[in-house]
Write a structure and sequence with these properties.
The structure is a single chain. By secondary structure, this protein is an all-beta fold. It has a single domain, classed as Sandwich (Jelly Rolls). Helices cover 0% and strands 39% of the residues. It has a 6-stranded antiparallel β-sheet with strand order 1-2-3-9-4-7, with no helix packed on it. It has a 3-stranded antiparallel β-sheet with strand order 6-5-8, with no helix packed on it. A hairpin with a 2-residue loop joins β5 and β6. The chain is globular. 18% of the residues are buried. The mean pLDDT is 93. The structure holds zinc ion.
Length: 131
C-alpha cells in the first residue's frame, strides 16, 4: 500500500484511492473512497461516482441490503446534479445538494438526469446502524 505519510499516523492516511469492489446489483465494480477495514474499527463504506459521467446511464439495478444507505450529493449551486431516485415502487426527482436516507430492506437505485461538470454522488453504507 502506497502511504505518502510516514510516522506514527501514516497508517491513518490512505491515498491509494479509489478502491474498486463488486457490489450486488451494480453493473461493474464500484469505486470506494472508504472501505471496511481501511481504518481500525471502521466498517463504513463510502462509494462515489462522478455523476457527469453517468448521465442517463444507471450504474446499478434496483437492489436492497440489510444495512441502511445515505445518498449524498454535495454541490455549491442548487441543481448542479439532478437525479431520479427509486425507492421500492416510488420514483422521485431531487436536485442537489441532497442527502437521502434509504432504510434497510428498501429496494433502491438512482439515475442521473442532469450533471454537466464533475460532481460526486456518494453512497454511504452504515453497517453499524442501530435504528
Ligand atoms: Zn445500495
Amino acid at each position: 500500500m502506497a502511504n505518502q505519510v510516514s510516522g506514527k499516523y501514516g497508517k491513518y492516511v490512505e491515498t491509494d484511492l479509489p478502491k474498486f469492489a463488486e457490489v450486488s446489483g451494480h453493473h461493474k465494480p464500484a469505486p470506494f473512497w472508504i472501505m471496511p477495514d481501511m481504518f481500525p474499527g471502521v466498517s463504513l463504506h463510502v462509494a462515489g461516482v462522478d455523476a457527469s459521467k453517468i448521465v442517463e446511464a444507471p450504474h446499478a439495478n434496483p437492489h436492497q441490503h440489510e444495512t441502511p444507505e445515505i445518498y449524498l450529493a454535495p454541490s455549491e449551486r442548487k441543481g448542479d446534479i439532478v437525479v431520479e431516485i427509486q425507492m421500492d415502487d416510488e420514483k422521485f426527482v431531487v436536485d442537489s445538494p441532497f442527502a437521502v436516507f434509504i432504510p434497510p430492506g428498501v429496494r433502491h437505485c438512482f439515475k442521473v438526469i442532469k450533471c454537466e461538470t464533475t460532481h460526486y454522488v456518494f453512497g454511504i453504507v452504515l453497517p453499524e446502524w442501530r435504528g
